[in-house]
Write a structure and sequence with these properties.
The protein is an alpha+beta fold. The protein has 9 helices and 7 strands, in the order ββαβααββββαααααα. Helix 4 packs across helix 5, helix 6 runs antiparallel to helix 7 and helix 8 packs antiparallel against helix 9.
């Protein structure tokens, strides 16, 4: 049993918060009367694909959805007396970005829970640890609300961190501008967009639990799932706020950079305007042709050298009086 054959772990719930761990043989031998079966699978395992497609009693369309690429958006779909649920959780794997969200595909009914993931997801391991400690879900209804809550909990520090980063960058923006600010603001906006991309439809999926009339989903868990949907909506609103604040800060940064560039260009223009007549004068007297005045006069160079700064001062006074500088 392991990731090579696709089986991460499996339990038969005892209805009291605990469960018995089983392997593939136990899964094959399981009957609904034995208790609620939870099978947690790696979707890339060859035996997982074979079992889901051929031995699990799942229709081809549903099995294809459970095994397909992780590009699926969160949704809830009625399948017989059960539900097919696709949800997303933040990526807490080392070296990965949290906004690269990990998908969890579930097929759940009153007697059996199938969960499939491609990349490691903490929610599955945490619920497995609860079952080992006899503090886990007692049935399918409690499992659904527990996994929804576990997927949402890591969002709290992630969104809080994004909000703190925007605050910090706004403070930095008051003290100056640099290229790192622009890059950091862009990264924050990208993270907020990526997180919202899946949280918004996940909130809509959560809301569907309240309307789906499946007999095994208890009213208490429906109410809890509705509360999770409301929390998800608040997270979506927080992400919108982070994105808008980052956009405003980036606009302010761009305006400051544009003002700085305009001031620099204006200064260069003024300097060029002041130096243009002296440059014309020196260029004219630098022509090496016959007939140039002063070529036979000893004091002509000194006169030109004095005339150039005097001309520059006169231009400066004129530009100040015209309020151009």
């Amino acid at each position: 049993m392991g990731e090579k054959d696709g089986l991460l772990f499996a339990y038969i719930l005892d209805g009291k918060g605990g469960g018995k761990k089983i392997d593939w043989n136990g899964i094959e031998a399981w009957k609904p009367g034995d208790g609620v079966l939870w099978v947690h699978l790696d979707r890339t395992g060859e035996r997982t694909k074979d079992w889901i497609s051929n031995s699990a009693g799942i229709d081809p369309a549903t099995s294809e959805t459970l095994l397909m690429s992780p590009a699926n958006r969160p949704r809830v779909q009625r399948v017989g007396d059960g539900l097919m649920v696709i949800m997303r959780g933040v990526n807490l794997n080392p070296g990965d970005q949290p906004d690269d969200m990990v998908g969890l595909h579930m097929l759940i009914d009153a007697h059996r829970i199938l969960t499939l993931r491609r990349r490691r997801l903490m929610a599955g391991s945490e619920i497995g640890d609860l079952i080992v400690a006899a503090r886990g879900p007692k049935d399918s209804s409690e499992f659904l609300s527990e996994v929804a809550d576990r997927l949402l909990q890591p969002m709290v520090p992630i969104i809080g961190d994004l909000d703190d980063k925007v605050d910090h960058l706004q403070i930095e923006l008051l003290s100056g501008t640099n290229t790192a600010l622009r890059r950091n603001l862009q990264e924050i906006r990208q993270s907020a967009i990526n997180l919202r991309r899946y949280l918004a439809p996940q909130r809509d999926a959560m809301s569907r639990f309240h309307t789906e009339q499946v007999p095994w989903l208890k009213d208490l868990d429906k109410a809890y799932l509705r509360e999770i949907a409301d929390r998800t909506l608040r997270f979506v609103e927080d992400l919108d706020s982070v994105r808008e604040r980052a956009a405003i800060a980036q606009d302010e940064l761009n305006n400051r950079l544009n003002d700085q560039m305009n001031r620099t260009m204006y200064l260069l223009t003024v300097v060029s305007a002041i130096l243009l007549p002296p440059s014309l004068l020196t260029g004219l007297f630098g022509i090496n042709v016959a007939g140039m005045p002063g070529t036979e006069t000893a004091w002509s160079f000194a006169a030109i050298a004095i005339l150039i700064p005097v001309l520059g001062i006169v231009e400066f006074i004129v530009l100040r009086r015209l309020r151009l500088i």
